[in-house]
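Sanity check. The docking grid for NAP depends on where the pocket ends up, so I'm generating a full predicted complex first rather than guessing from homology. Inputs follow.
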Amino acid sequence: MILLDGKRTAEAIRTELKQAVINRKEGGRKVPHLAAVLVGNDGGSVTYVNAKVKACEEIGFESTLIKKDNTITEEELMSLVNKLNNDPEVDGFIVQLPLPAHIDELKVTEAIDPKKDVDGFHPVNIGKMVLDLPCFLPATPAGIMELLSRNGVETSGKDCVVIGRSNIVGTPMSIMLSRNSNPGNCTVTLVHSRTKNLKEKVKQADIIIAAIGKPGFVTADMVKEGAVVVDVGTTRIEDPTKKSGWRLRGDVDFENVADKCSFITPVPGGVGPMTIASLMINTLKAMELNGK
Ligand code: NAP
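Predicted complex below; grid placement will be based on this.
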């Protein structure tokens, strides 16, 4: 079994991006600038946004963190999005999801200029992804593609089962893996909560991508010998041995599944760092696409 080490792979990407920043500075060119909007103080969101800002600092990107109270109105948030769309200093920005219930997430996502949509959630970018046109790819599935590619995982001709059909992970993942590209060229089955005989379907897979948010859902009896297993799930579970009182657990029963796999991602340290690395790649791309 080979561990698909997202932490190490993301570090290699950060080193390349650092060099790109140095080259740009030497050429007297602008440094990429990512802005992140954080509404409220949900524990998970705060952790993710802080990690994104930290990654910018490490690479040498500029970053701006805009914190707003969760009483912010939809109009105020829309006006902030509009301001960022028109700020020439900001190359790309994200509005960290989830948003409070009184704000329409789709409306906010649609208000982001697709050219600055480094999360790749705007319908224009999703549409372009489906058509295989240049665009910003959603950060988590793009990070998984990068992880597979950089660790020599063969995907062509493989049977892949993606568990979970969210707009930000499962659905784009299924499209990206089925494209005529490398990595890609998989025969993909997308399963979800209404799927019949889910266990049997997963058991047929050469590659399993688990993205449902149910800790330990994928058990050893669902995994074929030699399968590649990518665990996207990150659920906080109680752990009195930790100072915080919790730890992250993935959707895969890692302890019992790992021995059966050819490759497997750990949680934490697998997909998470790759998601952040993808966001950084998209931010550099945003600046280049806008001719800066
Ligand atoms: P989501 O929007 O909650 O969607 C979950 C999906 O899983 C849905 O399609 C749902 O099916 C399916 N599902 C739920 N229970 C199921 C079951 N028992 N059997 C089959 N399918 C089931 O989730 P998400 O945003 O994609 O996130 C999934 C997990 O990934 C979460 O733990 C999240 O924290 C994590 N995540 C991690 C990263 C990272 O960077 N590491 C990034 C994003 C998300 P239906 O559509 O039928 O309801």
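Relevant for the grid: Residues 140, 163-166, 168-170, 192-194, 198, 211-214, 232-235, 271-272, 275 surround NAP (CB under 6 Å).
Also worth noting: The chain has two domains: 28-113, 139-272.
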